Amino acid sequence: MKTTIDLPDDVLTRAKVYAAQHHTSLKELVTEGLRRVTAPHASDSEQRARAARLIAALQDLGLEGPVAPLKRDEIYDRTIFR
Question: What integer pLDDT is reported at residue 42 of this predicted model?
Answer without folding.
Answer: 65
